Amino acid sequence: MNSQAGKDRTHLQPVGGGAGEGTVSTGSMATDVAAADHGPRARRRDAVRNYYRILDAARAVLGESGADASMEEIAARAGVGVGTVYRRFANKDALIDELLRISTAEALAAADQALARQDGHGLEQLLRTLGELFARHARYAHLLLARHADTAAARRIPSVIEELTRRALAAGTLSPDVTIADVTALTWAMRGLIEATAEAAPDSWQRFLDIHLAGMRSASPRP
Asked: Among 34, 64, 89, which residue terminates a domain?
C-alpha cells in the first residue's frame, strides 16, 4: 500500500523541477475553468444572445403596442434588465432603426438571390420572398415605414424589380403587355393587403399573389 502511495506521489511530482513546481492543483483548475466561463468569449456569447432576445421581444411588443411600446416592456419580454437594453440601444428609435436595417438587409439579400436566376422566374421568386418579409413585419410595419431608410438600399429594390421584369418579359414568362408599373403596383397592393389583414387573415396575401401572377403569366413561355 505504501508502495502504491509512493507511486502516486511520484506521478504528481513535476518533471525536472523542485518541490511544488508544476504540481496540479484541483482548486486552481476549477478557478481556471470558472475564469474561462466568465471571460471575454463568454461575455460576447451573452451579448449576442441578449441582442437577439431583445430584437425578438421588440418585434412582439411593437406588434402588440405599436408606438406606445416601452423599453421596460421590451426588456421584460426579453428576460433581461432594462439597462441591458439601453446599453445596446440608446432609445426606442434606435431599436426601431435596427429592425428597419435588418428588414432592409433581408430584402436586399432576397433581391440578389433572385438576380442570380437566369430562367425568367426571378421576379416571381422575389415577389414571394418580399411577401414573406412583409408578413413577418406586418404588425409593426407602419413604424418601419415612418423611418428614413437607407437611400441607396431603398432605390435598389425597385431597380431590381425593373430588371427582373425585363428578364421575365424577354424569357416569355410574363405576358408581353405586362409593364413594370403593373408589377410595382402589385408589390404595393400586396404590402397593403398584408398590413390590413395581419390579424384576421395573415396568409391571404399568398392567394392574392397567386391569382395576380397567374393573370400576368404568358400562355407560352419562350424556350
From this structure: 89
Q: Contact, 164 vs 110, CB < 8 A? A: no
In a domain, 13, yes or no: no
**73: Cα separation from own chain's centroid:** 21
Q: Is the pLDDT of residue 24 over 80?
A: no
Confidence check: pLDDT of 80 > 50: yes
Rounded to an integer, what distance in angstroms lies between the CA atom of residue 117 and that of residue 122? 6
Stated pTM of the model: 0.74
Residue 178's domain spans which residues?
93-216
Which grid coordinates are listed for 167? 428578364
User: Do 102 and 85 share a domain, yes or no?
Assistant: no
